[in-house]
Predict the structure.
Amino acid sequence: MLSLGGDTMKTALTAALAAILVGCAAVPAATAAPKDEAEIKALIERWRTAFQKKDVDGVMAIYGDGKDFVAYDIVPPLAYVGGPAYRKDYEEFFGAFDGPLGLEIKDPQVVAGDTVAYAYMLEHLTGTMKGGGKTDLWLRSTETYRKIGGKWVATHDHVSVPTDMASGKAVLDLKP
Amino acid sequence: MLSLGGDTMKTALTAALAAILVGCAAVPAATAAPKDEAEIKALIERWRTAFQKKDVDGVMAIYGDGKDFVAYDIVPPLAYVGGPAYRKDYEEFFGAFDGPLGLEIKDPQVVAGDTVAYAYMLEHLTGTMKGGGKTDLWLRSTETYRKIGGKWVATHDHVSVPTDMASGKAVLDLKP
């Protein structure tokens, strides 16, 4: 296979080793985080657009097959296990509102490694409920991701408001 | 530097390339996830032990320098920014209780990549408040991590209970 002469081979070997060592060394450090973080920000933006339109299929697209997905949502129960349970949660939530929703995201923080990532952000939710009541509150949202088949997929959601422990009430009027 | 003859060098080059390519190929696949996940489970267990003893220094040890840390805690405000703010939150929380706390963790899910990881779990908190009231509730906890200087550090916490949106009350009596 290899048919180079001695000196040429020395040069080739040195060059090959240098190139490969640079390549190897680059793997742990340069996990293409800016590209991955941009991909995750785009994923969040697709989710946000779908959420505002109450488009359940569009929203669910970020969760892949949802097989190992678990959500801790703002509403009970403690946990939604699996994509289908979370889809039902979205359907019930969207069904409670008239017309589109507003969802603004404040300064999302996205951190990506090679195959695992997370994001957290404050979200401003606005809308009109079917009974006529207005919803206007700030939520905390944490979302985690895995890269599966070269594509980032959301694997866990945690959405909440704080609780006033003295009164047992959810604190729905906080602003960042 | 290299002083091998032609044939010997061919063999050496082939062997070196093979060894290096195997090494390179192994980097993305084998991110030592089981080892990393075990390290993170040990971190959570150290935190749990310190939490039960109301040992603020022990608790804070998992957050490294806390420089980029942000927590969404069960109590207001929406966010605690930086380690010192979160330490104060822990101090106030621990100060509200007489004696040690109980904290049981149900089935923590830990997912680790090369330098980024996350965990989520349900936590059963029990204790006696200074006024004599008993605390006995299940929380949802999500925590994210980065590997910094070869060591896993917690970078973000999200702790909550669900909210009953009709009554505006926190739902404190759920069980998994």
